[in-house]
Amino acid sequence: MINAGTDLYCIFGSPVGHSKSPLIHNTLFAHYNINAAYLAFEIQNIKEGIDAVRSLGIKGASITIPFKESIIPYVDDIAEDARQMGAVNTIVNQNGRLYGYNTDCMGAITPLKSIGIKGKKIAVIGAGGAAMAVVYGVLKSGGTPFVINRTVDKAKAMATRFNCEYVALAQLQEMPSLSADIIINTTSVGMVPDTEYSPLPERLLSPHMVVMDVVYTPLQTRLLKQAVKKGCQIVDGLAMFLHQGAAQFELWTGISPDMTIMRQTAIDDLEVTS
Ligand code: ATR
Question: What is the pTM of this model?
Answer without folding.
Answer: 0.93
